[in-house]
Each structure stands twice: as structure tokens, then as C-alpha cells.
Amino acid sequence: MSKLRFEAVVEASKRLPIAVQAPKKQPSEYYGKLVFNRKQMAKYLSKETIKVVIDAIDEGVTLPREIAEHVAAGMKMWAMEMGASHYTHWFQPLTDGTAEKHDSFIDYVDAPGGDIIEKFSGKLLAQQEPDASSFPSGGIRNTFEARGYTAWDPSSPAFIVDDTLCIPTVFISYTGEALDYKTPLLKALSAVDKAAVDVCRLFDEKVNKVYSYLGWEQEYFLVDQALYDARPDLNLTGRTLMGHESAKNQQLEDHYFGSIPPRVAAFMREIEFEAYKYGIPLKTRHNEVAPNQFELAPVFGETNLSIDQNLLIMSLMHRLASKHHFKLLLHEKPFAGVNGSGKHNNWSLGTDTGVGLFTPGKTANENLQFITFVVNTLMAVYKNNGLLKASIMSAQNAHRLGANEAPPAIISVFLGSQISAVLDKIEESSEDDDITVDELQKMKLGVAHIPEVLIDNTDRNRTSPFAFTGNRFEFRAVGSSANCSSAMTTLNASVAMQLIEFKKEIDQKMKAGMKKEQAIYDTLRLYIKECKVIRFDGNGYSDEWKEEAGKRGLNCETSVPLIFDTYISPQSVKLFESIGVLSERELHARNEVKWETYTKKIQIEARVLGDLSINHIIPVATQYQTVLLDNVYKLRGIFDEKQADELNKDDITLIVDIAKHISGIKTNVDAMVEARKVANKIESEREKAIEYHDKVFPYFEIIRYHIDKLELIVDNQMWPLPKYRELLFIS
Ligand code: ADP
Ligand code: MG
Fold first, then answer.
1. pTM over cut 0.90
2. Please, what is the end-to-end C-alpha distance for the chain in angstroms?
3. What are the tens digits of pLDDT across the range 144-158?
4. Which atom of ligand 1 is nearest to the CA of 298?
5. 462 CA distance to ligand 2 middle (Å)
């Protein structure tokens, strides 16, 4: 049963920080304790087995069955020593979060009915068949092939949660199609590795592998558990569907980097202890811009592992928040009028020779390589700006992008003045400039000086959705609740494709007799011109930019269901198919899931909004109106008509206002219900999502307007839902 507002406010106001037992050791001593990492492997597996496993991870080849048996045996021994009794394949279906089904290690020694033994075979480690028919598949699995398989991903180590050994896996259909986020991600990572190695070898023959790195910054809100329980909208949709702005919110800019409230600090400390046990190198914690908004971020790591760690930490945060009597909100926009939450994806590529490909180098050769990778990334983002937007879009993130105080739903790249100047110089230099490569890089471009200058590169543009920040790009449009895989698959795939095309061009030019450096330089010059429109260093929040971006031909679509169309455009299908990341069939299936999910989210919100309007708000408003009416009548009993009218003037205005807002709510809720009925009859998932977006969703704001007005009129004592000023300030 939902709580009453005043009960909840009192309960929340009495809360004290929960005492957190600090581990007696330094983090380095218990770091990774719950993970079957290389250190643990060394204890439980033979040298030969470890070598095969590591080679398989590095080369991306399949592990032989007998090796899987050895690994399973070692892993089981470790897990049981750690107190685990169960295991699960831990996978990432196309829903929010992860999925798991726990099985115990026990089995009969011989025949059924006899003694039991703990067993865990290579087969169970390598592959499972969860009854997965209720995960979204976009129609890929029809009934006769309803099974899905999970298969072990050895590149992400197994870990233990409570009594369960969790084994990261991919999730695919009987016919081999991806039903999850991880499968296409692994394919994109391998594509970018291969494509980038080929390009790196133009500069350094010794490069054999290129890693994609990700450092995410997780933003989140916390609200007190009791207040959360008194808000059915937060409970059921993850965001407040109504609520008048608090008189004070973020306008004083006093929350960002402010001192962390003790209750929250205790929560953060515990998260860190837990994270270190899982080998998640949390580094940063601070308040964010909005009240009750916070952030944590680890040191970056390999993209696949970093994503698994993000998913794990999101679930750890949920659990620990409850312990501290908080509710964790990962929704991209839980409160109107204050900032929403994102998850900046700091992304870079680096070689096995230890070179960061977005880090300016010391030699001319390294700098040309650096510029090559920057320009190719620009090209990739330029060509696929609509697709990259689709990769981060969701019903929730739509509130954050394109809304008043957030980045627009347009992807552009911020480079900063130094790199921009370098690119401008390359662009301006003419083809017959007979300059040596050495001159070219050291003098004309000034590239050799970049390292020193970049150190105080302070003009970081917070409004850009995709920004160069010294040694990496920061994809900031990713939503706080999202699985980063979607963005990372698309970005790495786009860059892979671009690098392949670049290499082809260089090869052709060299075949035609051009020197290598000249070919590179020539090609870069063309690219810089071609993708110039993606560069924007100005204020991304401004209206002028929206207009300008449209003129530049960038994708400015704001309707979520239509943004998803980009995934199945001929260009995107070609991109994903040609580098083997996703087939056309998979792309269509996944879009079905996206449209369906969008529809369901809006549908749930519409229902909750309707219910709250009719059952919570209107009755209370009517009750208060009755109080006022009562007063009016009583005054008439005491005073003569003229005096009474004079005294009743303000109450009567309020009574009329309340009536207007009640009627505004009622009429629009009715109309919204009708619009929903029409939408629900539509068969096509795409059309239905469009109908929900165009015809149902617009009522939300109108209904909310009337409710928020009533919140200001109705007696504070009567108002049923915790107000923003109560929800948003943890002491
Ligand atoms: P800010 O808020 O200033 O952007 P943070 O310190 O909060 O910075 O987060 C920056 C993130 O970027 C961290 O996760 C950090 O490890 C990561 N990062 C730093 N260098 C790289 C890199 N070369 N590649 C990928 N991520 C990186
Ligand atoms: Mg950042």
C-alpha cells in the first residue's frame, strides 16, 4: 500500500546515516576478491590452460571443449571455496538490466535417489539453454524455435554475488541471431580492432592489436525510500509525472561539487568497498548539478569489461540504496525543471604497443597517426550522426535530449580550438605545397606542440554531445539507465567501417604511385572538408544551433520512433552487415523491440497519470473546493449580501480556478484514454509507437500543467503526493 505523504515526510526527516563497516585493509588488498581474474586463475588452473584461455581471448577464437572442462573445474573449486552454491549465466537481453537464472551445483553421484555431489562441467560453463521465450526478440524466435542459448564470454571474468557464481555470456537464438547487447558489441570491437590495426601499421609495423577503451561516468538521483513509496508515479515509471517546481532547485548552483550529505556519503563509501571487491576501479564520486543528483566513475578499461562492470554496479547500487533507505533513480529525467542524468561514455582506442590513438604524440609520425584517427572518427560520426543518435535514444532519454536545459537531439562534435586550428591548417594547405612531411607536421601544423598546449585545454564545452577531451572522445548523449553497449557497438562499428574505407583509399593512392605520407595527407584534407559540418564548438543548447544544424543537413529528428528508423536505413544496414556486426534481419527484429518498448513505456505512464489524476488529485482538489464553498456559504449567513460578496471575492476566484483545472484534467484524461484505445488497435509496432508519440504523449504535459497549478492552490495539508521540495533535498 502506498504511504501517506505526511507519514513519509516525517519518516524521511528522522533518518540518520547508516554506519558502514570499513574493511580493515587497503583496497589493493581486497581488490577483485570476488572475481575469477587472472590472479585467481593462476591459483586454480594449470599454466597450459591459462595460456590457451588468454590466447583465445586475445585472438578471439573458440576455446577447445577440454579446456572449458579444466576452466569449469577450477572455477567451481574457487567459487565453492568462496561459499558459492549456485551458478548462473549472466546475460544482457534487450530489456533494461541483466538476466540470470540460478542453478545449484548439486547433482546425483550415480543414479537418481542416491547421494549428491557438487558438479560443474565444461558444458555447463560454455553453453546453456535458458527458457528464454519471454525475453524480447522482435519476432526472431517464433514458437518452433523458441529456444535461446547463452554462451560463455571468456573475455569478461566470472564473479560471485552472494552465493552465486555469475558467468558473463552472450544470448543468441537457436538460429544464431543475437538476442542481446553483448553479441553485436563483441563483433564491433573485433571489427574496430582489425580495421584500426591495418591503419596503425601505416605508422608502426609492430602493432598487432587495438583495444577499444571505455570510461563511463554514471549519474544518478537518490530519494528517500519513504517518500518514494508515497509517489506511485516514481514507483511505476521511474519518474515524477507531476509536481510543481520547488521554489529552490538548482538555480544557486550550490549542489555541484558541494559537500556530500552524510547519508549519501555513507552509501557512496559502501558502493566503493563493494566495487573494489568486484575489481571495479571506482575513482571519482561527487555531487552533480541537480539537488539529490550524484555521480560516480571508475578508471577506464576495455570496453566489453567496462560495460559489464557498469551493469553490475547499477545493480549493486540498487541493492545498497535500499539498505541506506534510499531509492536509486537511474531514469534519465526523474524531475522536470532540474537536470537529467546521463552516462558520459569516454571512449578511446589504444594499441598493444601502449599508444593511445587519440593522444597527441611526441614525434611527427605519431602526430600524423593521431590526426588520422581524429579525422576518421569525425568522418564516422558525420556519416552516422543519425544512427549514433538512434543508438542512445529511448523513451526516457528523449526527456533529457532536446528538452530545455539539455543537449539537443542533434549529434555534433566539439574539438576545441587547438585541434580545430590544426585541421583548419591541413584543410587550407594546397595540394602542390611541396613541403616535407617533417615540416608539415612540426611547423606548419604545429602538431608537435600539441602536448604542452593541451594540458591547459580548458575550453571544454559541456553542451556538446560528442566532445574531444584531450586524449579521448566523450559521448555524452548516452542515458543514465542505458546499457552502454548500444552506443559503443554503433560507435566502434562506425569507426571500423570508416577506417576500412580510409585504408582502401590510401592503398589505391599508393598503388598509383603516391608516397604514403602524401596519400594520407591528401585523404585527410578531403575528409576534413567533407565532414566539416559535424564540427560545432558553440552553445549546443541554443535555438540558433537547432536551425543551423538543420541547414547543415545533420539529423534533427526528435520523434523517438522515427529516430529508430535510422537503424534500418540502407546505409546503416550496409554498415552493420559489411563488417559482420548485425544482419538486416537482426536490425529489423531489434527495431521491433525498440518500438514495442517505447509504446509500453508511454502506455504505462499514461495509465499511471490517468489513475493519479482521477483517484488522487481530483478528489483532493474537490475536497478543498468544498472547504472554500463551505466558507462562502457561512460568510453569507453572518454578513449581509454586499459585505459577504466582498469578503468571498478571493475564495470564489479560487473555486472557479479549481473547477477549471479539474475540468482541464478530466477532459484531457478522457481524451488521452480515447487516444490510447485508437493506438492500441494498431498492429504494426512502428505505427503504434508513432501513434503513441504523436497522439498520446502530448496529453502528458497538458494534464501535468493543470495538476501542478492545483498543487499551488490546494491546502498543503491535503496534498497527497510528496512535493519536489520534499523529494529533492536530502539532509
Ligand atoms: P570529467 O567529469 O571531467 O569528464 P571524470 O574524471 O569524471 O571526468 O571521468 C573521466 C572518465 O574518462 C574516467 O572514467 C576516466 O578513466 C576516463 N578516461 C580518461 N582517459 C581515457 C581514455 N584515454 N580513454 C577512455 N576513457 C578515459
Ligand atoms: Mg566527463
1. yes
2. 26
3. 556 788 888 888 999
4. 14
5. 9
